[in-house]
Amino acid sequence: MKRELSQQEIDAVFQGSSDATRDSKPAVVPFDFSRLDRIPKSQIRSVHLVHENFARNLASSLSAYLRDYVSMNLVSLEQISYGEFLEGLASPTFIAYVGLRPYDGTAVMELNPALVFTFVEMLLGGGGKTAGNPQRKVTEIEKHLMQNLLRIALQDLGDAWKTVADIRFAVQSLADEPQGFHILSPAEAVVTIGIEVRVASTTGMMNLAIPSIFIKRLRHMFDRLRRVHRAESKRRDQVHMAELLARVGVEMEVRLDGETISAGTLLNLEAGDVLALDYPLDRKVTALLNGAPKFWGDVELAGTKVALKVACEYERD
Predict the structure, then answer these.
(1) Residue 100: which of 222, 223, 211 has the closest Cα?
(2) CA geometry: angle 52, 66, 73, nearest 5 deg
(3) Which of 42, 59, 224, 235 is deepest in the core (most CB within 10 A)?
């Protein structure tokens, strides 16, 4: 039997449909589009390893160049925007814009002015104990004196990167204000590397900023580097295990297997009694390592001591 809906029932149906439509709308979730430029953690670990080697090698190179001890330690590695990197720099400072040949792109190397003044004083024969006012700008003469030191730093940086790719780092220009001119968009992602430098009585930071897009282009080369490091790590583990095993003590004994005697004979043994072992003189004896048969050998004299001459590995008759 047909039944017509009342107006109240029709309104209730439409109201329920409207509520369901409102409830089914997806929740709005904020999305940070800068995350699209982020580099995978596995690749970041490789970048960290490259610049650890760079810091170690540059410390040795500068120690020889300045004839004084220089300590360098990688203390930070982050993925941030280029604008955030510039905001974290002192003003004035010492900045070198570095080309990444043969690839397109520019990196930034920044040195704390206090370090620059110490380096300059040491290059001029001083001890680096009376560095200038870190609040003033680096002069053109001081920039010129820093050229050789920069060449050494970029040579070591290129050597460290050779495990990934052959890159020639070269100074394009120098600046003393972070906001002087922008080689990258402030929103562009960069990988920043912070290296603490200690020389004479001065401690300061060397900061590097490398475009994330440049590192992404070399992803397949980083994958190859990671495979090489895994293989080297496995070999080192094997060598280390072999060295540990080489120091383990092993108990060695030589056994002459004779005939079985009765308990009565054993109880009646006295000093001077001779037991026949029923062991032929030309038969080889068994050498045991930790109770397990390992070698056949011959009993011989070595000076005033009895010795075992190993003949071959043990095999059961």
Answers:
(1) 211
(2) 20
(3) 59
Q: Assess contact for 286 and 314: CB atoms under 8 A.
A: yes
Six-digit token pair at 243? 């060295």
What's the pLDDT tens digit per position in 241-276?
777 777 777 788 887 766 677 788 778 888 888 777
Q: Which residues pair with 292 in a beta bridge?
A: 289
SS3 category, 87 = helix
Residue 298, C-beta contacts closer than 8 angstroms, at least 6 positions apart: 284, 285, 308, 309, 311
Sheet holding 94-101, edge to edge: 70-81, 189-199, 202-211, 106-111, 94-101, 168-175
207-247: pLDDT as tens digits: 999 999 888 888 777 666 656 666 666 677 777 777 777 77
Crossing angle of the two packed helices 147-161 and 41-66, in degrees rounded to 10: 140
Q: CB-based contacts of 107: which residues, under 8 Å, 6+ apart?
A: 97, 98, 100, 169, 208, 209, 210, 211, 214
Tokens standing for residue 217? 């282009």
CB 167 within 8 A of CB 218: no
| Domain with residues 33-234, CATH architecture | 3-Layer(aba) Sandwich (3.40)
Q: In this structure, how many other beta carbons lie within 10 angstroms of the beta carbon of residue 126?
A: 13
Q: Which two tokens stand for residue 12?
A: 């209730």
The H or E element that residue 72 is part of is strand 70-81
pLDDT tens digits, residue range 148-179?
Answer: 999 999 999 999 998 888 899 999 999 988 87
Distance CA 176, CA 94 (A): 5
The DSSP output letter for 316 is: -
Record the tokens describing residue 181, joined without a space: 């001119």
Q: What percent helix, strand, coil does the chain show, rounded to 5?
A: 40, 25, 35
Q: Which residue has the tokens 């010795």?
A: 307
**DSSP assigned state of 33:** G
